[in-house]
Amino acid sequence: MVAVLDAVLGPVIRPSTYRRWVFLILGGAVLVPFMLIVGMVLPSLMPAAFQDETTLVVALSLVLVIGVMGLMSLIPAVRVIEGTAARELLGDGVPEQAARVAVSWTSRARFAAWFVIHLVVGGVLSILTLTVPPTAVLTFFAPFTGRVDMLGLTVTTPRGWAGAWVPLAGLTGLVVLVHLVVGAAVLATRAAPFLLGPTAAERLAELEQRTEQLAERNRLARELHDSVGHALSVVTIQASAAGRVLDSDPAFARTALSAIEESARAALADLDHVLGLLRDGQSATRPQWTLENLPNLLEQTRIAGVTVESTVEGSLGAVPPAVSREAYRIVQEGLTNVLRHAGKVPVELRLAATDDRLELDLSNPVHEHRAKPRAGGGHGLSGMRDRVAVLRGQMTAGPDRGRWLVQVRIPLRTVR
């Protein structure tokens, strides 16, 4: 019994019912100007038809009203206002794209159908809203007056207890109207994802945009990890070394402090570049470190106390810029990993540039007490692999005869 009462009377007391009711009545309110326009245009164009051809006039009126509403729906502001009202009054079932300007004719056609249906259904419900509640109020006087007067019509009813059913009929009409409103709102909410939501092509475009944004965020994260991470690792070791020999070897301490300053400046330049991209999509300073800047990177690492032996085969200047930038970051991250996980051990670096590919080998001794990576590590190799994968290259990393060896092979012909 309770469930039946909730099903029948629940919509009457729910606030969401009346919020949805307002949305539907708004459609009826917007319909009125269209009806007035048609009512003024048709009589002047077809005066004879208004006297003899009533059916034809009604049909033409409907076609003209729907046509005008369809044209009005093409105005971008109409979709924004209608979609915003739908989201606010119908609830979360309406997609957020409903309040955005349509970008395809398919979306415009779907919105035109939504707009016309909203106005027509809203017009019908508006008429019922203007007639049913006042009639329901008048039915309460029927047992005393024996009649119900509404819109110039008089309905005779029994007096006294014999007419007690008339107020009940009026209340029933109100409940039925509420359920009609709820039903129309539910159907509108279910139709909203199709009529107001994105098309398949728009979903694909949005997915591609999000994918590009995610890829860009990952790229910026790698830039910060590689550049700033390397600078902080080098600065930490250099500062520690300078502190130990500050009194005994002032010259080395000054050299270390100069290297710290240079590393910090480079890190700040990279940080400013990345933050500029995150802030407004562009940056005033765009550092583009390439393999031509490799000697400076190796010198900073040597000042940190790491012996680096480098071998270069071929012309690094002939390497495509995209490959050169990524290869620089790969070497930078490789050296950072050595500093973090192996310490001040000798490093061997080999770079070979041919017409077909770039070869990069970076190795260092592995000690048993350094075999396990420090806590919090593990992003360096994955970032290097990401860079290599973007360039359609191959990378291997692991122990090799007592040394940790990183090998990178990047094709050059496909990226020129």
TrEMBL record:
Its EC number is 2.7.13.3. Keywords: ATP-binding, Kinase, Membrane, Nucleotide-binding, Phosphoprotein, Transferase, Transmembrane, Transmembrane helix, Two-component regulatory system. CDD domains: HATPase_UhpB-NarQ-NarX-like. It is an enzyme of class 2 (transferase). Gene3D superfamilies: 1.20.5.1930, Histidine kinase-like ATPase, C-terminal domain. It catalyses: ATP + protein L-histidine = ADP + protein N-phospho-L-histidine. Residues 216-281 form the Signal transduction histidine kinase subgroup 3 dimerisation and phosphoacceptor domain. InterPro entries: HATPase_C_sf, Sensor_HK_TwoCompSys, Sig_transdc_His_kin_sub3_dim/P. The chain crosses the membrane at residues 21-42, 54-78, 111-144, 164-188. GO terms for molecular function: kinase activity. This is histidine kinase. It comes from Actinophytocola glycyrrhizae.
